Amino acid sequence: MTITRADAVRLDAADPLAGLRDRFDIPEGVVYLDGNSLGAPPRAVAGALAAFADDWRRDLIGAWGSAGWGGLAARLGTRVARLVGAAEDEVIVTDTTSGNLFKLLVAACRMRPGRSRVLIEAANFPSDLYVAQGVCELLGLELGYLDEGAPLDETVAVVVHSHVDFRTGEIADMAGLTARAHDVGALMLWDLCHSAGAIPVDLTGAGADLAVGCTYKYLNGGPGSPAYAYVAGRLQDRVRQPITGWGGHARRFAMAREFEPAPGTARLQVSQAPVIGMVALDAALDAFEGVTVEALRDKAASLGELFVALAAERLPALRLVSPRDPAARGSQVSFAHPAAERILAEAAERGVVGDFRPPETMRFGFAPLYVRHVDVYEAVERIAAVVPA
Amino acid sequence: MTITRADAVRLDAADPLAGLRDRFDIPEGVVYLDGNSLGAPPRAVAGALAAFADDWRRDLIGAWGSAGWGGLAARLGTRVARLVGAAEDEVIVTDTTSGNLFKLLVAACRMRPGRSRVLIEAANFPSDLYVAQGVCELLGLELGYLDEGAPLDETVAVVVHSHVDFRTGEIADMAGLTARAHDVGALMLWDLCHSAGAIPVDLTGAGADLAVGCTYKYLNGGPGSPAYAYVAGRLQDRVRQPITGWGGHARRFAMAREFEPAPGTARLQVSQAPVIGMVALDAALDAFEGVTVEALRDKAASLGELFVALAAERLPALRLVSPRDPAARGSQVSFAHPAAERILAEAAERGVVGDFRPPETMRFGFAPLYVRHVDVYEAVERIAAVVPA
User: Which of A110, A271, A344, A361 to mutate to test the interface with B (most CBs of B within 10 A)?
Assistant: First the structure.
């Protein structure tokens, strides 16, 4: 029952999302399995950047209105909301993931005065750890690590967790953990960086309070593209984030003397919207038009399953560190090998792009909008040629 | 001694910077006097954005290295440093002005533990007020207003001040106020938004400690372009800013568990650099190549003087609110009139773009790289046609 290239070709032929790859511009011969780190370029972006330059040239400062620059943060928020199971007005695109995490974490602690602890997993993405460490130092709170036995009890103000683990791709039980946090009166803050755009995210269904995410991975916004933040509607008027710039003011151009938070998620903004990055993201999100998150998940699972099955046949020296069950895994498969870094470097020379996470993890992402089953087949073929015997 | 259009033409003919206007793309017939709000588009930007799209397409995630994306924050910092009188390693381009102000203000207060007050001017740009209010609330400090008699004494941790007043264009005494702050052991934090790129700024000569600024005004980086932050070399290792994301980590990709600040200004970064905005800014700064800040100041003063003289002749109903002495004024002239908002709207219909600041200020900016003396002449002609008799 050896898997052949013909099997991969057949899977592509039956793939309802196969045509979406044309929305992207990927160099011939490259197998790009690093869309979980930086998404591939949607074709629409270059044109959108040229149109941006035209708008600026033609209308100068007037383009804040005429070209819709002023409304981008909220409008992009509604586009992202659909992908994360949120209401249209519960998401805003602004700043960076870590910056938004800082703002929401401080806001969460303020909504739970008197509680002395923040919980996170030591296995979380390091930037989340660093931000949580910084917030705890700033506010005089204690940081506990859930995966090291720190208790989730009524001293906890907020729990921070990634929906999909950046190393293993494991999907967390969003509804279950949120319920556990709520049981002790804590707030729940999700990091969606490694899930949104690849698998279904249901913030509303899970009863989540707060969330952050980036747009440069599965959302393909480009390097350092603007991030987003989610606040459940029921909490929006109570969120007081600490970076109170004019971007989050209720009447920015009134130039009033005192800060007054804007209604809803608009108060999470700090300054002017980074228009060029937002214009690129707006075009990038067009690649999701007409696609359901369920279809994305099915395609991602199919790609991942093929990769795991092929690896079992041809890459026996690699140890799977992702969950074996595709339903428990995001759109990513990770393997461990002592020579992981060198294997990835040599694979890259052969046009297979994955990435390395210390000490010995190889990550391969299967962005369902543009990765094909034949890409997966090619990747395993080329990696097999460089794994030490 | 009426000033004529011929006089303006003569001034342009003698202007050593006249050729620089070709580096910009400004619509025919438009007199753009709002570069102090959003700079005009440098011609090089559109091409740089197209090149960015090519880099992303060709090298995907590899472009962080091959296209130099990873070095943009520091490299742009060195380019801005020249314009603000700083050493090359004292400036970094990152985040937004208000976000950087937040970070540096918290860091400054941490460097002055035990001091209970922050000073600012009530006349400062509102976003600076809001951020200072937010920081004081966060840290339990008191905010005092210098221009309302708050004493500058040894209870003050840090003084925040704009180099050029956004309403009146008045230049502050950077060296003098910095010395006064230092006399009582306080730190001095300058906002350069309305000065950098139009007049000389000498952070080193003034002994300044910290500074922030935007790049979308006189630096022409485009709407919401990335901001910069300055930390004097002697303080860099002591700055501890509170938003400790992986962008400011000493070894970002080591994925270590604990935050460890990067050396120098790199620690002011929070997350990934907003590459698209930075690429645009990099191209925009090319417009300053071969230009000294002294030449910019001279041109700006010449434009402002012409405007003031013409206004005295033809716009007697307008009250000058900027300093009369060009040496005391940034590259901006402001007038007050009860009907300011309507006058500006009607002038805009005639192609003259200035801007309104409540309650009755009209601001006109003279970006020395692209505004001509004939533009100034045209502006006064067209404004005279709409000022109520």
Answer: A271
